[in-house]
Every structure is written in structure tokens, then in C-alpha cells.
């Protein structure tokens, strides 16, 4: 009963309102503190993780570089000799290298192991020709770190750090490799010192997604590990480095920071669950909330007394305003010494007189406007000063396919979700500023047909005082015009036969990728190729058969590359592929898969089957390139070189600053 009597009075409601305001204010302040604190905590943790990731990446890079340098010095000592006894003698003399390597092996130019230390039965004579690290060394002639493997004797995860043996003419003469244990070599000793709370951790993986270091040992060198489960890690595997917030392996959201170990093609990642990062802040906010609640309860008696004093003259004002609203009085006549209340009463009387005049004018204008809008063949609407649409003419109802009694909240949901927020913000801005509302947006009718609408609304202002009454607008259906514009944009940059990019569209994407490379050093690779043995298809089967072959090859190439890559038919049987955020090694593997896939495509004519092969040139953007045409010319030259090698091959063309063969040109 007590609570009911309190809430039945203005004083009680004001007291409750003040308490609610205090609680809302507390909630807003604490909410703002939470948001600001969360941002600061996140930025502080991100900065720490970014610093730690860079330190780890630098230390691992130094570890790898030192091992490369040690093997290169050993290569200078061994020279070009393949005598097993002499090589064994020299390897034993350099026994100190075993501090960095678990074992050292030497192979000849054909990939056969000719010496090792410590000696393991069966290792000398082993053929490594088809192993990935030997192919990479022979192809690039640069130091290389292999994919992880499990040692036969130690049953431990290992990698092979290797350098090529080059003769005085720069020809490939074999390789020298050092076997490095991922557990005991000290490569990741920095990771053991990382302190990211009780749940944060660091990990290292290869660019192919194989885990090299992780607190969960079961994930190391485990083929079942799926890097795409962590979207930011999947992005880092393509060469990106930086930090952000995203999903972790266990499904939680966490802070993540990535750095690249370019010399080994590895990715260093640091992970901290968001809940742990915010744990100290949440405890602090919780304590503040209870302190605020206690203070509000203690203030209630004081607020009650103050309201009792203030509301005594307000009760009379409330009564008289109610009588004016009921038509029992024409105005307020308040007998009080409080100047503020006198001003309120005077202002109320003036506003009431003006309101009566406006109501009369408004009724006249509404009658005129209703007749105009109902007769208009164009879609038109009227909205009040709160932004609510109060009227839509029959033409607009027909365009939108809605009923006159349909609630505004219901048909607003039919505005395309991508356009809804922007349209609402611009609508409220026009109401506040008096500017015209001009907007194009998508509307989905109840029959699922999507329309493009152009809306032009103008604020209606009072002639006296400049106050806004609302908006009057016109709606046009521009669906056909938008569809024609979209088709024209697509046709301008795409090949009509294959649906791939044409030369114009390809050049624009090359220019954008090269601009990103100059700005952020994001690596991008480029493939150029044409079709070997394509002319007989056109000559013997006609252009229709040739067009069919081109369409099939376009489908195969588009299927083999990544969704982020750009495939183009530049004219005739010439094709290009732009691989953004792609290293040269990854590009070579993609080129090989394209060559293999296209070789399996065929067309038939009069009982004869026709196939083609690819001569692919591969290169990447370089900091010495003045524009993307330099890289384009380099890839084209590599394609011609592939044809000169007998076709059906892939040739990687490095920039001259990186190509050892450029020294002999």
C-alpha cells in the first residue's frame, strides 16, 4: 500500500524518475567507462602482443639466418667435391655445427645424399630428387627451410635448413642441409618466456598451415589442423602481418597478432582470449556499480524532502494545465511569487494561443494536400516532424506492393538491410537541418521482387517562425535504369566469350594491386600464359571449336585459383592471373596446378580429340618496378622462355635484383 500511494503522486513519480535517472546515469557512465576501458585495455594488450610478436619473429629470423650463414660457410669449405670420404672428414672437422643442427647432409646435383654427419645407416645414397626442399633449392637456388617432418630415429618433429651448392659459373651442384629439431634446437626459446596471462599463448606455423610450435603438442605437424578455423591466421598464411580481434581455435573471440619470418616462410602468432584481457576491467566496473547503488539509496530521504518543497506550487500548475487540456479554461492563471513558474504560465498561454491558430491553418492545408496527393500519378508521401510517415498516395502503395493499413515498422523492414541504416541516418539529418532528403535505396516487395527506388523529400517549413512541419516526398522506381548501368559496367571490363576479365579490367586490378604493394609491401604474384597447340583447333575444327576450348579452359583456371585472385583473357589465347597477397613460391605451386589441370581439358571434332598445354611465366612485384607494366613484361618474357624450353612448363622470372643469373647477362 505504501508503494502504491507513493507512485500515485507526482512527487513519488519524480523521486522514482530521479532514482531511475541516477541508475541510468550510472549505467551510462559505467558503460562508457567499460567501452573506453575496454578499448584502452585492448590497445595496450595489442601493443604488447605486437611488440612480442615482432621480437619473436626477429629472434627466429636471426636463428634461421645464422644457420643459413653457417651452412654457406661450410659450403665454401666443401667446394664442389662429391668424394664421400673427404666430405665425411670435413664434416667431422666442423663438428661444432651440431650445436645448431641435429645432423648435416650433403647431396650432389642429382639429389643423391653423398655424405652425412653423424652417420646414419641408409642415409648416404638416399635419393631426394622428388622431395619438395630439393626441388625448391634447385629451382630458386636460394636458401630454403623445408616443411616439417618426423625424424626416423628420434620420432621428433624436425625441419631441414638447406642451402644450394653453386659452382663458379653459378650452376646448381647440389645442396647442404642441416636437420633441426623443433623441440630442442632453441629456435622457439623466446616463446617459452611469453607471459600472456593464464590462457594466452604463442604459436608458429608454416605458410602452408603446418603447426611448428603450439602449447598443445598434439597440433604440431598434425595434418588435421585446419588454419581456416582461425580467419586471421588464414589471412596471415597468405603473407599478411598485423593484429586484430577474431575467432580462436576453440571458438572463443580473442586478440591476435601476427608477424612473418620471411626467410623461413613461417608465421608467428600470439593469442589472448578477450575475456581474460578484460577480466581486471570487469572486476573494477562491478565494484563501481555497487558503490553507485549504495549512494543512490542513501540519497533517497534527501531527494524526498527536496521534492516536497519544490512541488507545492507545481501541483496547482498541473491542475490548471489539465483543465486547459479539457477545455474548461482558456489559459493558466497561477498565483505565485516564483518568477520561474510565472514565466512557465505566460509561455504556456502564448503557446496555446499559437497552437489554436496553427491547428486551423493545418486543417486547411491538409485538405488541399490530400486532394493533390491522391490525384498524382507519381509515388508521394507525407511525414510528420518526428519522421513518421503519415500518408502514402495510391501510386506509392502500388509501387511498394503494400496495404494502406500496414504498420510503418513492418514495411521499413522490407528496405534492404545494407541500405536501411544509412537511409535512416540521412532521414533524421534532413529533419534536424531542413536539408532536402535525396537517396537511392533497394526495397524488397512482399512478392520478393527487389526494386531500386529514388527518393526526393523536402522539409515543409512554417511561414512564421521557420519551424518544420515535416516532409513531403516523391518516390521513383529506377530499377530498370540501375540494372542497365550495372550491365554496362560489367560488360566494359569482362570478356563476353569466357566471362573473365578483359584487358581493361585486368589492367585496373593490376594498377590497384601495384598501388597496395607500393603502399604496404603486400606481396603479389603474376602469371601470364597462352595456349600451346591452339592453332590446329581453330584451323581444323573452326572458331566455334576454338571458342569452346577457350570457355572450358577459363572454367578450369577460375576453379583452380583462389577466390581472391583475378583471372583475365587478354585477347586470343592469351590469359593472365593476378595473385594478391601471394608469395612467389605459392604462385609457382598454383602455376603447376594450372598447367596440370589444363592439360586434362580436351575437345573433339570428327572423331579427333584436341588438347592444349600451357607455357606459364611467373613473377612478382618488386620494389624496383616503376609500374605494373615492368612486372607484366617480366612475366611475358618468362612465358616466352617457357615456350623456348619446349612448352608445357612453368618458368619463374625473378626481378634482376634477386635473380643470380642476371649477373651474367
UniProtKB/TrEMBL annotation:
Q: Which residues form the GGDEF domain?
A: 522-655
Where is the chain membrane-spanning? 288-307
> Could you tell me the keywords of this UniProt record?
Cell membrane, Membrane, Transmembrane, Transmembrane helix
Q: For the PAS domain, which residue ranges apply?
A: 365-434
Q: Which Gene3D superfamilies match?
A: 3.30.70.270, PAS domain (3.30.450.20)
Q: How does it sit in the membrane?
A: Multi-pass membrane protein
Record's subcellular location? Cell membrane
Pfam families with a match to the protein in the record: dCache_1, GGDEF, PAS_3
The highest taxon in the source lineage is Bacteria
Q: Which SMART domains match?
A: GGDEF, PAC, PAS
InterPro entries from the xrefs? Biofilm_reg_signaling, dCache_1, GGDEF_dom, Nucleotide_cyclase, PAC, PAS, PAS-assoc_C, PAS-like_dom_sf
Q: Where is the PAC domain?
A: 437-490
Please state what the protein is called.
Diguanylate cyclase
Amino acid at each position: 500500500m505504501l508503494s502504491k500511494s507513493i507512485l500515485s503522486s507526482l512527487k513519488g513519480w519524480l523521486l522514482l524518475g530521479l532514482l531511475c535517472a541516477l541508475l541510468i546515469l550510472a549505467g551510462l557512465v559505467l558503460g562508457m567507462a567499460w567501452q573506453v576501458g575496454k578499448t584502452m585495455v585492448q590497445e595496450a594488450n595489442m601493443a604488447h602482443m605486437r611488440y612480442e610478436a615482432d621480437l619473436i619473429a626477429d629472434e627466429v629470423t636471426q636463428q634461421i639466418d645464422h644457420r643459413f650463414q653457417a651452412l654457406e660457410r661450410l659450403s665454401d669449405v666443401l667446394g664442389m667435391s662429391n668424394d664421400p670420404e673427404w666430405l665425411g672428414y670435413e664434416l667431422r672437422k666442423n663438428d661444432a655445427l651440431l650445436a645448431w643442427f641435429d645432423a648435416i647432409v650433403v647431396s650432389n646435383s642429382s639429389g643423391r645424399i653423398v655424405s652425412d654427419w653423424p652417420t646414419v645407416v641408409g642415409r648416404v645414397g638416399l635419393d631426394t630428387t622428388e622431395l619438395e626442399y630439393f626441388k625448391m633449392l634447385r629451382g630458386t637456388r636460394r636458401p630454403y627451410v623445408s616443411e616439417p617432418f618426423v625424424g626416423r630415429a628420434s620420432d621428433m618433429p624436425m625441419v631441414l635448413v638447406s642451402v644450394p651448392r653453386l659452382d663458379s659459373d653459378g650452376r646448381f651442384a647440389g645442396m647442404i642441409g642441416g636437420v633441426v629439431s623443433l623441440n630442442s634446437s632453441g629456435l622457439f626459446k623466446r616463446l617459452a618466456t611469453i607471459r600472456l596471462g593464464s590462457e594466452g599463448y604463442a604459436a608458429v606455423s608454416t605458410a602452408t598451415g603446418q603447426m611448428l610450435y603450439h602449447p598443445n603438442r598434439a597440433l604440431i605437424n598434425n595434418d588435421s589442423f585446419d588454419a581456416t578455423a582461425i580467419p586471421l591466421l588464414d589471412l596471415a598464411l597468405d603473407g599478411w602481418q598485423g593484429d586484430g580481434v577474431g575467432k580462436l581455435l576453440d571458438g572463443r573471440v580473442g586478440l591476435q597478432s601476427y608477424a612473418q619470418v620471411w626467410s623461413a616462410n613461417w608465421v608467428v602468432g600470439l593469442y589472448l582470449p578477450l575475456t581474460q584481457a578484460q577480466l581486471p576491467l570487469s572486476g573494477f566496473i562491478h565494484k563501481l556499480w555497487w558503490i553507485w547503488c549504495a549512494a543512490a539509496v542513501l540519497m533517497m530521504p534527501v531527494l524526498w524532502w527536496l521534492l516536497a518543497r519544490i512541488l507545492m506550487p507545481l501541483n496547482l500548475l498541473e491542475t490548471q494545465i489539465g483543465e486547459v487540456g479539457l477545455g474548461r479554461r482558456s489559459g493558466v492563471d497561477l498565483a505565485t511569487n516564483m518568477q520561474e513558474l510565472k514565466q512557465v504560465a505566460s509561455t504556456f498561454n502564448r503557446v496555446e494561443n499559437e497552437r489554436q491558430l496553427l491547428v486551423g491553418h493545418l486543417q486547411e492545408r491538409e485538405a488541399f494536400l490530400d486532394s493533390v496527393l491522391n490525384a498524382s500519378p507519381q509515388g508521394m508521401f507525407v511525414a510528420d516532424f518526428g519522421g513518421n510517415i503519415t500518408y502514402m498516395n495510391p501510386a506509392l502503395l502500388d509501387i511498394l506492393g503494400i496495404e494502406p493499413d500496414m504498420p510503418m515498422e513492418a514495411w521499413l523492414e522490407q528496405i534492404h538491410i545494407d541500405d536501411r541504416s544509412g537511409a535512416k541516418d540521412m532521414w533524421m539529418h534532413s529533419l534536424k537541418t531542413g536539408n532536402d532528403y535525396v537517396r537511392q535505396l533497394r526495397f524488397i516487395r512482399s512478392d520478393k521482387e527487389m526494386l531500386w527506388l529514388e527518393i526526393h523529400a523536402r522539409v515543409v517549413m512554417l511561414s512564421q517562425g521557420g519551424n518544420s512541419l515535416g516532409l513531403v516526398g516523391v518516390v521513383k522506381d529506377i530499377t530498370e535504369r540501375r540494372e542497365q548501368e550495372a550491365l554496362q559496367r560489367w560488360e566494359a571490363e569482362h570478356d563476353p566469350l569466357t566471362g573473365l576479365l578483359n584487358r581493361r579490367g585486368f589492367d585496373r586490378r593490376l594498377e590497384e594491386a601495384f598501388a597496395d604493394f607500393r603502399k604496404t609491401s603486400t606481396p603479389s604474384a603474376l602469371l601470364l600464359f597462352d595456349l600451346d597447340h591452339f592453332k590446329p583447333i581453330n584451323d581444323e575444327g573452326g572458331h566455334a571449336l576454338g571458342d569452346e576450348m577457350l570457355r572450358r579452359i577459363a572454367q578450369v583456371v577460375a576453379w583452380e585459383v583462389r577466390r581472391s585472385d583475378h583471372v583475365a583473357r587478354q585477347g586470343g589465347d592469351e590469359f593472365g592471373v593476378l595473385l594478391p597477397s601471394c608469395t612467389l613460391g605459392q604462385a609457382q605451386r598454383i602455376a603447376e596446378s594450372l598447367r596440370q589441370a589444363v592439360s586434362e581439358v580436351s575437345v573433339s571434332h570428327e572423331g579427333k580429340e584436341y588438347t592444349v598445354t600451357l607455357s606459364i611465366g611467373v613473377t612478382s612485384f618488386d620494389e624496383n618496378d616503376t609500374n605494373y607494366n615492368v612486372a607484366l613484361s617480366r612475366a611475358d618474357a618468362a612465358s616466352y622462355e617457357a615456350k623456348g624450353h619446349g612448352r608445357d612448363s612453368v618458368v619463374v622470372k625473378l626481378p634482376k635484383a634477386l635473380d643470380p643469373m642476371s649477373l651474367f647477362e
